[in-house]
Amino acid sequence: MFQAPRGTADHLPEEQKYWRYIESKAMEVAARFGFGRIDTPAFEDSNLFIRSVGEGTDIVEKEMYTFEDRGGDSVTLRPEGTAPVCRAYLEHGMHNLPQPVRMYYFCPVFRYERPQAGRFRQHHQFGVEVLGDADPSVDAEVIEVAWDLMTSLGLKNINLLINSVGDPQCRPAYVEKLRDYYSGHRAILCPDCTTRLERNPLRLLDCKVETCHALGNDAPRSADNLCEECNNHWDKLRQYLDSMELPYQIDHRMVRGLDYYTRTVFEVQPVDGGGQSTICGGGRYDGLITELGGRETPGIGFATGIERLTLNLKSGEVPVPDEPSPRYLVANVGDNARIAALELSVRLRRAGVGAILSSGARGLRGQMRQANALNIPYALILGDDEIEKGEVVVRDMESSVQESKPLEKFIEEASKSHAKGD
Ligand SMILES: [Zn+2]
Ligand SMILES: [Zn+2]
Fold first, then answer.
1. Domain 328-415 falls in which CATH fold?
2. In this predicted structure, what is the pLDDT of residue 257?
3. Is 179 exposed, middle or buried (0-12, 13-18, 19+ CB in 10 A)?
4. Closest ligand to 287 CA?
5. Superfamily for 13-170+226-315?
6. Percentage of the chain modeled with pLDDT above 70
7. What's the confidence (pLDDT) of residue 20?
8. Which residues surround ligand 2, an ion (CB under 5 A)?
9. pLDDT of 274 over the 70 cut
10. Which bound ligand lies closest to the C-alpha atom of 284?
């Protein structure tokens, strides 16, 4: 027997109500903020991600699904959603549109990760990107979108964390300060951090190993080491967030895993989960478009994992509406009734009314159980008597009250009430 590949999951019908719920809330929020949807291919030229995500990152070095296609080109399954959107912005000349351009996406994302709870090799993301405006009010707006989505979903006990990681003007000096600081403690760093110390000292700050983590408390803070422009941006951002009454906290350790972030970074985390269970994360990436060969274009966005959101909705016991069931189960007893029931279900469906034919072989009681199991509110019962009289029995499954109605009149009423949206 085949099984789904390691680190992947089937999303069965009973799981779908969470997905529909998240999608509909996300689309509602995106529309309210004036975002347009974009869909990009599942795979791209490998260099797009090497250039944008950055050589030396875990994603590029260990986690990408990269392969040569039959024509000899190196392609990579999308490991994140931002670079493809930026590629599309450039390819379609979107800098000619009124700026900023606001886009959102839903897409599968592929990373060869060590399988563990809540981590998948194929998972799904909702994300937004705003391109073409560097003003801190845009940062505040994108953070508001993230917070609005989380609260619209009904998630509670979550924190909104922000930080500024500076830009190419001020970051190199800060990184050197960090390197100096951690070099003084080299003996107690974990093996990963010893490597990071040379290649990417920023990542030392969010190491989860206890000794490294403790060192982070006294490490130099990026927000204290910003150049004047970055510092102005950071001040204004907090001023805007205050005036919007968004309940943010500053987290000096948060640097995010991708090289392309500049200035603002932010995350939403469960209060008792910490950084390993981040629900939503994003930041500004003003250098990314030039890295991809375009003219200087600022950008900011965030992404959130649908699987992770689903876990949080379940653990937070957030009530999620059930997927709609058909309104009627057409039950039938006897051979004649089977054809009549088939016809009745067809006529209802053609009038736009949800109806399914029950399996008549189970007897009436079995068919009623079927209606309950499928959450169908009404059963329609047809037997020889009803056919002879041109009637149908309508049974309310919740109250068990049933009444006979003339068949034609019933169909007419059911179609009408459907058209009215009842
Ligand atoms: Zn470490
Ligand atoms: Zn700066």
1. Rossmann fold (3.40.50)
2. 65
3. middle
4. 2
5. Bira Bifunctional Protein; Domain 2 (3.30.930.10)
6. 98
7. 96
8. 166-167, 169-170, 227, 230
9. no
10. 2
